[in-house]
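Predict the 3D structure for this chain.
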Amino acid sequence: MGDTERPRIAISSCLLGVPVRYNGGHSRDRFLDDTLSQHVDWIPICPEMEIGLGAPRDALRLEDSEGGPHLVTRRTGQDHTEPMNALATSRIPRLDADGYVFKAKSPSCGVRGVTLHRGGTVVDHKHRGLFAAAVMDAHPLLPVEDEGRLHDPVLREAFVERVFAHARLRALLEGDWLPRDLMAFQARHKMQIMSHASYQETGRLAAASGTRPREPLATEYAEAFKSALTHRTSVGRHVNALQHCLGMLDLDHVLRDDLLDVIESYRARRVALSVPMALLRHHARRAEAAYLAEQTYFRPYPDELALRNHVTP
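Done. Predicted structure below.
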C-alpha cells in the first residue's frame, strides 16, 4: 500500500489518549491507538475544545427544545449550541477524511444512543451528538463508527474495510488518472464489491470512462462505489464471491472439491473467512492467475490487522 493510499481517519482526540475529556482525562482505545495507528493517519478533533471549552470543564448534555436539541452545560445550563453549529459549518467542509471514529455516547460526538433531556427528565436515548450529526448529515457515505461498536469484530472489520477502500479511491481520483486507470481500479475491486452488492453500476460507469467528461464521471463513480460498500456483507454474499473466485481457477477435481468443502465449512460457520480466503489466494498465486491474485477482496487492508480470523456467529 502506497503512502497516498494510507487512510486518513478523523477521530475524537480523547480516543488517542489526549486529555481533553470534561474531567481532564481521556478515553484511550488500545486497538485504535496501538494497532490501527500503524496503518492510518489520524486527524484528531475535539469539538468541545475547539469551541473554547477547557479541560476539565462542566459536563455537557443535550437538552430538548422546539428548534431541536441544544448543547448545554449540566450544572449551569449555559448554551453552547451556536458555537458548536458555527464550528461544524466551518470545519466540516474542510474535513478531508476517509472515515471518522467518534467517542460513544458523547453529547457532541456520539453517533447513536445519546441521551436527550428535558429539564431534569430523560426523554430518550436515541439521539446523535450535535457535531457528529452535522458530520454524518454532510457526508452520508463516510464510514463512521464509535469506539464502543468497534469492539465487535464484525463491525470492526466492516469499518476498516470501507476506510481502506475509500483511501484507494481517493488516491486514484486525486491523481491524473486515465480511463484505463479507472477500469483497472474497478477490475481489482470487482470481487470485493460483489461481497457487498451488485457491481453492475460501478462497472457501467467505469466502462464509460473513455467517452464521458472526466469530473462528472468521477463524482458518479465515487458515489456508486461508496454506496455499494455501505451494504452489509454476509456469509451468503461471501460464499457467492468465493465461489466466483474458485470458478476463475483451473484446478484439478481434487483441489476444487477440497476448496468447495472449505467454502461450505465457512458457510456452516465452522471456520473463519480467512481460511477459504488464504487457500484461494495461495492457488491464485500458484496458478499465476494475476487477475484473481490482484483482487482487493483478498487483501482489503493490511494482513497484520487479522480482522477476518473470527468465526461469524
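Residues 3-151 form one domain.
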